[in-house]
Design a protein that fits this description.
It is a single chain. With 120 residues, the protein is α+β, with helices and mostly antiparallel strands. It has 5 helices and 3 strands. It has a 3-stranded antiparallel β-sheet with strand order 1-2-3. Helix 1 packs across helix 4 (85-99).
């Protein structure tokens, strides 16, 4: 959650209409639903998801929820092998930006790729 919100925050400079609530604020306010995110932060879209571990990797499910209508708009599931840490780092942010319909310019893609490591 921290990593994703940090990466999305970096994108704010490339996409003026994007505003990200820090993960620390979500935890501090104990926000656990899209309704609470809308009420506490005036959020319009909320990213939710789940992580399921298996011996061979991780299955991620990422959802985008309309916080005003409490309706799931889009969803994507992905499996990432345990040995592919770069896919874990890049795959999640790529899928989230796709689900949010954010087109990443080359400089934004380079910025997000900085600091990737193949070490899980």
């Amino acid at each position: 959650m921290e990593s994703l919100s940090s990466q999305l925050t970096e994108l704010e400079q490339f996409h003026g209409s994007l505003s990200v609530v820090p993960a620390s604020d979500i935890r501090r306010e104990r926000v656990v639903s899209a309704r609470e995110a809308q009420r506490n932060f005036a959020a319009t879209l909320v990213i939710t998801g789940s992580v399921q571990r298996s011996p061979s990797g991780v299955r991620l499910t990422i959802n985008v929820v309309d916080a005003r209508q409490l309706k799931q708009l889009r969803s994507h599931g992905m499996f990432i092998p345990e040995t592919d840490a770069v896919s874990m780092q890049q795959g999640v942010i790529t899928q989230v930006t796709d689900l949010l319909d954010i087109q990443l310019r080359p400089e934004a893609q380079r910025r997000l790729a900085e600091g990737n490591t193949p070490v899980p």
